[in-house]
Amino acid sequence: MPRIQLSALDAHWRAANYLAAGQIYLLDNPLLTEPLRPEHIKPRLLGHWGTSPGLTLVYTHLNRIIKDRGQDTLCIWGPGHGGPAVLAGSWLDGSYTQTYPDVTRDAAGMARLFRQFSFPGGVPSHVAPEVPGSIHEGGELGYSLAHAYGAAFDHPGLLVACVIGDGEAETGPLAASWHSTKFLDPVHDGAVLPILHLNGYKIANPTVLSRLPEAELDALLKGYGHEPLYVTGSDPRRVHRAFAQALDRALDRIDRIKAEAPTAQGRPRWPVIVLRTPKGWTGPETVDGEPVEDTWRSHQVPLAGVRDNPEHLRQLEQWLLSYRPRELFDADGRPTDQVRAGIPEGTKRLGSTPYANGGLRTRSLPIRPLEAFAVPVDKPGTTLHEPTRVLGGLLAGVMADTADRRDFRVVGPDETESNRLGALFAHTGKAWQAKTRPTDHHLARDGRVMEILSEHVCQGWLEGYLLTGRHGLFSSYEAFVHIVDSMVNQHIKWLKTSRALPWRAPIPSLNYLLTSHVWRQDHNGFSHQDPGFVDHVLNKSPEVLRVYLPPDANTLLSVAEHALESRDYVNVIVAGKQPCFDWLSLDEARAHCARGAGIWDWAGTDDGERTPDVVLACAGDVPTQEVLAASALLRAHLPDLAVRVVNVVDIARLMPREEHPHGMPDHAYDALFTRDKPVIFAYHGYPWLIHRLAYRRAGHAHLHVRGYKESGTTTTPFDMVVRNDLDRYRLVMDVIDRVPGLAVRASAVRQRMADARTRHHAWIRDHGTDLPEVASWAWPH
Amino acid sequence: MPRIQLSALDAHWRAANYLAAGQIYLLDNPLLTEPLRPEHIKPRLLGHWGTSPGLTLVYTHLNRIIKDRGQDTLCIWGPGHGGPAVLAGSWLDGSYTQTYPDVTRDAAGMARLFRQFSFPGGVPSHVAPEVPGSIHEGGELGYSLAHAYGAAFDHPGLLVACVIGDGEAETGPLAASWHSTKFLDPVHDGAVLPILHLNGYKIANPTVLSRLPEAELDALLKGYGHEPLYVTGSDPRRVHRAFAQALDRALDRIDRIKAEAPTAQGRPRWPVIVLRTPKGWTGPETVDGEPVEDTWRSHQVPLAGVRDNPEHLRQLEQWLLSYRPRELFDADGRPTDQVRAGIPEGTKRLGSTPYANGGLRTRSLPIRPLEAFAVPVDKPGTTLHEPTRVLGGLLAGVMADTADRRDFRVVGPDETESNRLGALFAHTGKAWQAKTRPTDHHLARDGRVMEILSEHVCQGWLEGYLLTGRHGLFSSYEAFVHIVDSMVNQHIKWLKTSRALPWRAPIPSLNYLLTSHVWRQDHNGFSHQDPGFVDHVLNKSPEVLRVYLPPDANTLLSVAEHALESRDYVNVIVAGKQPCFDWLSLDEARAHCARGAGIWDWAGTDDGERTPDVVLACAGDVPTQEVLAASALLRAHLPDLAVRVVNVVDIARLMPREEHPHGMPDHAYDALFTRDKPVIFAYHGYPWLIHRLAYRRAGHAHLHVRGYKESGTTTTPFDMVVRNDLDRYRLVMDVIDRVPGLAVRASAVRQRMADARTRHHAWIRDHGTDLPEVASWAWPH
After folding, report:
1. Are residues B90 and B211 in the same domain?
2. For a Cys staple, A483 with which of A527, B101, B486, B595, CB 3.0–4.6 Å?
3. What CATH number is attached to the domain comprising B492?
């Protein structure tokens, strides 16, 4: 039994419940020092009471085990919409006041705490970045458990408790995350203790897991690889006792697992606690004759008419007084010694753990000089490399140099090898705690490449890892990264908000490598073709977003180095894994990436001096190749045409400076693209994105964009660009159609281009391969 | 034991395997009538062998039970990338030839079948819409089981077999879908038989489920509510026998469940089959000294160098001959009687079931005249209604009138009531097979409102329901519909491809009601604010996409009616659930929605005649209110200014006609928006979307768009529009700033507007509510 008295735990719990309800309702009279009157009540009653008493219970009891055991603990509050509960806990443990000194731990501060909650200009209703001790918002449900595992990886001394609501447990990402048990290394990683909180209801419905027969729920959790411990009840004293015992048993078991881990065979069965308490517990039992406590009616605000309905007001007062606030707070509103008896000290407090402010723990990543990995480029466009394989060397170096620190991981849905990043496996393995067979490759209990066929889990793991201060990269099929559209939304929102909080230290950026991209789905076809993630993220806060389309191996190295060194961004890097011409030496690549967009003198015929007749612009590896091939065709067939080639790596450069920190000023844009010449822009993705970025530019009326327009199937690489009118021949025709006077003068050239497209169609029909002249093409020197 | 001999089953299976391998490799010599030479081999070897022999096994044995029992059966092929297997099955059962008469069921047709596979201009490598008998692509993994349940709902006589790969089983959506057992009504719905195919590997890794201890896997499946049946082996004879027995037991159990259902208490334990066979089974055991069969190396093409490597060529020939093709096909390439012995007839064939061509079974939905639900509007902007509640009446009518037909369902993640669609519950309940308690509301075993807290499962269920010919609507929080971004991508791709296949009958549209939208997240704040789904879908094939932003209740009725009657679209309807002014009578609403965009004469001061000085445009309910309030302010303060108000319901009207079938011709656009007057456009979502749609219009340089710019939190409705510069005062200031000559003349008015914003900030800080003048505003008559 705990050294801290159950009565002290109950006092803390009642205090937290009082504070949670107070935040939802009270504008004034925080200590109920006078009878409750309508003017003490907030004009708009917002927030979620239903989940709150369960969260306060967990906060109270985690305090106790932290204090008893000196255990470093981070808690992920899955039901993050129960913001009042977590705010209450952090106010009680002093973290809140330490973070926000004007919200003092006394009556005045309590009044502020109450007033600011869900109040315009105050704090949000959820466990948002503003809440000390949190790395998880919990508005969009589903990611708590993956976040918890991400936080636990490579933190061997850390306990990550994770409260999972039974609503959230119905989501796909959460359901998949249970299998993280097969990826947690008891030697090198911390422990995750899921606390499945079955309060029975979501918004207006019962939850699936709460209505399973006991045996079925038990089978399910054992099937996930857990040993379940059950705590059920509505009598606080019994629940306190049972929950304290369950926590002790769980932590004892974790200690045993970790002690035995270095010599253990097989995968441990980690504990899970099932906490079954009523929704809206300790709130009004009935309102207006309808049952509320322990039903879906307690989800948000159980008493909705308090300002106008005297009976509701009376019920609220009774409810608040039922916590016996005079026993919990002194006359000045300070929590009594009994309430504070179970609270740990300093950075052990849940509200003050540095694991929840990961930037405080971040170390710069050791990145070897790029020279070690760069490919030599004497002449552009003569050699071919697989860009991601070259990147693999860089990542392998980081992996090697973090072997002891263990603060770098690469995640992906089983594509590290197929995305040509296999060099990593010289320095680490793929994390795997389940059974192995002799034919398996690269599996290792302590591996830092993480592969599970769930983009959701990959993303959640990585977010948790980054939010607790470590580094990483997510390599994904370009099309399927849409699976985490909504997750990246939430992470971007978290970063945007965090950047405005001075006490939150910057964390390593979330780095995406999008490869196996739209243009090279030879095996898979239409379902694997979607370049729209860039469009999706560019809707979000520009201060957080960076999008790079390196055209070759060395530029990929340069942007990857930059991304891995950056903080508080989401970096989206789109790069192919197929052999791709090397255009720039490392030095040239660095200079080009630093500018983000620039003229490739050697590729055009305007000598960098003449005003061009036309600009051929490109962004992305395949479009760059087609633009250079088009430029070579123009040089051969229309040698007096002044063609300028512009390559864009950093797509935000196209935006106005007011809309993105990387946006070019107009004069710089005009210097690259001109104000009045035709610009034929070959873009990797949906063509209208370029228009959306550049519509305010002087030359926009002359901008003509080619890109992917949903014309996809299983076919050859060149057929893909032909189908989408992005091919060299079409680009030359575009030039001829748009440069004034050329239509007549170059009509024979135009016909040759049209003929080449016809020849392509005939050849591919007969041979199933690309035209030899395309397959063997190289930049003419 | 089956009436059909196991030897016949084995013959069918070998024939299907032969055909699957042949599709991956052979360009010619389909029957191996001459020794295999390099020129018989495809130049590009594409496809996925690894999963194929498992799929052919399932095809073979499903044929048998269909024939034995006359059981209507649809199969969802989760590993849809194993296209060759399913194509083989449908060619053998004659469905393929019936659908594509030039691919005859003989040697010439076999040659075509082989050549076209993954060949440019041929058929995709996956089980795409082109494949008869399929409703599921299986490229982006995760949705097979939800599709299966969707297909089974309200099809009481149907068996839906669902092959789930162990790779797919790691995904979130699949993991969540297992709990569909709590939503399948054995009386009114069909049966779903999951066949979990553990072949052990995904791309380069073992799979989680295949490496669980037997007891753990068993517990997991029982935890999902299933009774597992196991079939394990690599000896074909034993596996045939065991799988046939397992299928018989499963179907017997299903028959028993359904027979007992009308009087049974509680939820049945449906069978699941676990089929454990080697990946790449019957393919090359080793290649170049490395083990291939039963390892990850057999995932795609086990022998990669066949054209150049004589040893590989020899191995391929041996492999193909190991199926003993001369026993399987006669000299003309026709499958022998033995191969065909187990194949069912007519529409019972898996490749010919009308359930996989759902449009054939679709009936028009009974929709009552809108007059029954419309709100009376004598004068615009004087009464308020909750638009979605009004829509609820319409939907409830449909629900009532389909009580016997049972071909309409409403899905959503537990928000039907909170989204104000509760009228439905007068005519149906929420589907629920688990335990109930007295405080539950509206739960019913035969309910046709489907609520689970997983947007993935909701979407998957609905897709399966629609693809098999029925109707439905998905009501979602606007922000969280991004959770299914990637799923709607795949559904749009399916529809786009299907529309080009004359044999696929049009199916009911996928209708989204996006409510609880960005402007009204009073309880929830920033994490719940994202209007970007419209941007996401508008990247996709325009012929499939329709986006509506009805400004009030009657316009919502009109677009909903249109959406429910349509076919082969994805209709996205964005509409609020909060009280909203009624602007148009039903007749006006119908006329306005038919036009998609139009001038609201009564709201402007240009009398519909004068050339306006400025156009105030709006799309969405909240922007419409702010524009009308701005128009009223302008009328009061600058009465001689000619203001035109334009409302846009159908957002694609803004696009050029060449880019969307609903796009307006330029003259129509100019007639609405003018070519040269300032247009202040208040848009519901991200403002740049409007630019992206309208950048080609003559007046684009004068277009100024206000919308949501990621400035969100928990706050009041009016504070949200102020934070994002979409409020009436800001719009008036925009007008003054942009109409030539007004800056000086109206500087005092501009100051009053700025003062009103300042007053707002002060008021909200002190009161936490909106300015009384805003809260009580109504259109001035």
Report:
1. yes
2. B486
3. 3.40.50.970
Closest CB to A454: pick one of B172, B203, B715.
Answer: B172
- Over A757-781, what HEC string results? HHHHHHHHHHHCCCCHHHHCCCCCC
CA dist B535 → A148, A443, B538 (Å):
32, 41, 5
Q: Is the pTM of this model over 0.95?
A: yes
Of B520, B551, B580, which one is at a domain's C-terminal end?
B580
* Residues of chain B found within 8 Å of residue A526, distances taken between Cβ atoms: 124, 128, 139, 493, 497
Q: What is the ipTM of this complex?
A: 0.97
pLDDT of residue B324: 98
Nearest to B47 by CA among A105, A760, A525: A525
Pairing of strands A430-431, A443-444: parallel
Residue A222 has its nearest CB partner, among B182, B216, B526, at: B216
Residue among A125, A451, A522 minimizing CB distance to B523? A125
Q: What single string gives the DSSP state of each residue in A547-599?
A: EE--SSHHHHHHHHHHHHH-BS-EEEEE---S-EE--S-HHHHHHHHHHSEEE
- CB pairs A-B closer than 8 Å: 363
Secondary structure of B584-596 in HEC code, one letter for each residue = CCHHHHHHHHHHC
- Of A327, A353, A379, the position where a domain reaches its end is A353
Do B475 and B430 reside in the same domain of the chain?
A: yes
How many other CB atoms are there within 10 angstroms of residue A55's CB atom? Answer: 30
Verify that A677 and A722 share a domain, yes or no. Answer: yes
Give the chain A residue whose CA is nearest to the CA of B477.
A140
Residues 6+ apart with CB under 8 A from B717: B519, B520, B522, B578, B622, B770
Tokens of A69: 């055991």
Flag if A120 and B719 touch (Cβ within 8 Å).
yes
Task: Examine residue A780 and state whether it is found in any structural domain, yes or no.
Answer: no
All residues of chain A having their beta carbon less than 8 Å from the beta carbon of residue B206 are: 432, 434, 436-437, 440, 443
Interface test with B, best of A454, A481, A493, A765 (most B CBs within 10 A): A454
Is B663 a member of any domain?
yes
- Concatenated DSSP letters for B229-282? EEEE-S-HHHHHHHHHHHHHHHHHHHHHHHHHGGG--S---EEEEEEE--TTTT
From the list B139, B168, B523, the residue facing A527 with the nearest CB is: B139
Is B360 inside a domain boundary? no
- Residue A184 · residue A262 · CB < 8 Å: no
Residue (of A457, A503, A490) closest to A476 by Cα position = A457
Mean pLDDT confidence for A73-93: 96
Torsion of CA A708, A710, A713, A717, to 10 degrees: 0
Cβ distance B432 to A168 less than 8 Å, yes or no, reads: no
A507-533, pLDDT tens digit by residue? Answer: 999 999 999 999 998 878 899 999 999
Does A611 lie in the same domain as A550? no
pLDDT of residue B607: 74
Count of residues making up chain B: 781
Question: Could you tell me if residue B587 is inside a domain?
Answer: no
Cβ neighbour number for residue B194 with a 10 Å cutoff? 32
Contact indicator for B509, B569 with CB cutoff of 8 Å: yes
Token readout for A302 is: 């159980």
Question: Cβ A121–B452 below 8 Å, yes or no?
Answer: no
For B558-606, what is each residue's pLDDT tens digit?
Answer: 999 999 999 999 999 999 999 999 999 999 999 999 999 999 999 999 8
3-state secondary structure of A704: strand
Domain tally, chain B: 3
Residues of A in contact with B118 (CB under 8 A): 523, 525, 714
Q: Do A434 and B765 touch (CB under 8 A)?
A: no
Q: Same domain, yes or no, for A225 and A311?
A: yes
- Domain assignment of residue B300, given as a range: 6-353
A570-574 β-sheet, strand order:
A443-444, A430-431, A449-451, A408-412, A471-477, A510-515, A570-574, A545-548
A526–B497 CB contact, under 8 Å: yes
